[in-house]
Amino acid sequence: MKQSHRSTRIFILCLLAVSVLVPIVVLSGRIKHLTSDVSKETDALKLNSIEQEDGEGLKEPTLEVYKDEGGSTVSFSTYNESGKSEVSRNPGSNANLAEKNGSNHKAKKDNQQSQQEGIVSTSDGKEEFKQATVEHDQNARSLSRKEIDLKIQEMKDQVIRAKAYLNFAPPNSNSHLVKELKLRIKELERAMGDSTKVSELSRRALQRMRAMEASLLKASHVYPECSAMAKKLRAMMYNAEEQVRTQKNQASFLVQLAGRTTPKGLHCLSMRLTNSYFALQPEEREFPGQHKLHDPDLYHFAVFSDNILACAAVVDSIISTAMEPEKIVIHILTDSLNLPAIIMWFLLNPLRRATIQVQSIDSFDWMSTKYGGKMQWQSSSDPRYASPLNHLRFYLPEIFPALKKIVLLDHDVIVQRDLSGLWSVDMKDKVNGAVVTCREDEPSFRRMNMLINFSEPMVGRRFDVKACNWAFGMNLFDLQKWRRRNLTEVYHNYLQLVRNSSAYLDSYQAVIDCLFGCTSWYKGSKRPLWKAGSLPIGWVTFYNQTVGLDRRWHVLGLGHHADVKQRDIEQAAVIHYDGVMKPWLDIGLEKYKQYWRKHVKYDHPYLQQCNIHD
């Protein structure tokens, strides 16, 4: 028994010894293997260092950025499209690399340089990758916008098709298909409005598109006739074009009507100034400096106007830009109705060292006695053409008999530079100095045949249809040459010729009648010689008597064209609000009103009382 217990204990102890010794043996073997590996690596490092010390000239050269004869490049590292660094090598560059080996000192410098270049190329690669990512995002966004526009266009097409199908239904039809189409139209129109506001299409909008397509498919089965659909669409297109034509005619009529009316504020201002004028004593109504009115050595300006606010603005611009205001003499000619108001305004707002004269056309007794029946201007529904002030410019030598030269300004201009240089312009033996309007790319461009009837043989013989035209608004006139050549009589002869040939064309009515699709601008069977207004008869009166001025003297188009170049406006000596959209009207172009407003005294009590604000 004891023997069995003893053998059992020995067996257990043996097992314990084996379980303890075996792991120790295994671990010791592994440790010895690791120690041998480390010693081998250490020996290799030592051998390496010895070899490097013995053969410095045999050190492997480092890569650097260079260009060989073929222009190929080796870079230390670049970035691929995924942003990972990779080494790029030039095949066939080993010979070049061998040639670049040198001393250890040079190798160290080359190594540092190559590392710096590697860093630079790495940063450049990152920046290029970022830029490429940004450009890709922008392209994706622009593509999404294009898709949105296409979807919206599809919605519009669906709405048009649905409305066409509704026209096929009987009047007052209340069928299920009609109700469904009407509902789908409302839903799509609401979806298009929402997408326009938020610049994106919602999932609901796409669902409504699919629903509309299903409804249209049902309607196509109910109304399968394609020819009837095409006919209905053509009728709808014709009706839409007619509506557009009517709306444009109405808009043109309203614009013309607004340009011919007097704003309530201007009427109020005229009444208040007239009332104040008649409250003055006769001796208080005189302007100072009247002895300068006939001095030919001064700078004389003429302005013909019946608009108080326009006169005030143009006179203020002349004085504020003049280098020698004491040499400025301004002559304002108006009608008897507006004479008291204009005089009173300049009595309340005297000019700075300049001289002003205000006259009425009714005070010129010599006009009726000298010319009599010759002064029968054309009749027109537009008062701008029928007013005697519009044709008074052709009598400048008689109105100012003592003057040699004069500058005529329209009341819808603003002076931005000193104009005294005009008196030294070489007129080249001509009477009229004006800016020409020959360039087709400018808003002021006009051909002679646009206002003059060249189908008349007399007109074709006397004038060249390709002749370079000019503009009223700022004109320098040599009154001495005018008198010698008797151009006022030439003007009267053309007036008489027109009266004998046919009636004048009402320019305003012609624009309304022939606004779209009109092949000619005349009324009746016979065309007149030219349209109403002073410009066409001015062209023929001063034909071959006009010298072109530098374009910077006078820029036109601010009253009818929204694309006048900003640089031209800033460089111009005079800017002209020609057209119906005057700066004192609500229909005036807002972007150009700033140049006019700074010459209007909006803080004046009368303007404030009449609610005239900027």
From TrEMBL:
GO terms for molecular function: polygalacturonate 4-alpha-galacturonosyltransferase activity. Residues 79-125 are annotated as: Disordered. Pfam families: GAUT_1, Glyco_transf_8. One of its GO terms (cellular component) is Golgi membrane. It is an enzyme of class 2 (transferase). The keyword Glycosyltransferase applies. Residues 112-123 have a biased composition (Polar residues). InterPro entries: GAUT, Glyco_trans_8, Nucleotide-diphossugar_trans. Pathway: Glycan metabolism; pectin biosynthesis. It is a single-pass type II membrane protein. It is found in: Golgi apparatus membrane. Its EC number is 2.4.1.-. Coiled coil: none annotated. GO terms for biological process: cell wall organization. It comes from the Eukaryota. Keywords: Cell wall biogenesis/degradation, Glycosyltransferase, Golgi apparatus, Transferase. PANTHER family: GALACTURONOSYLTRANSFERASE 4-RELATED, GALACTURONOSYLTRANSFERASE 6-RELATED. Belongs to the glycosyltransferase 8 family. This is Hexosyltransferase.
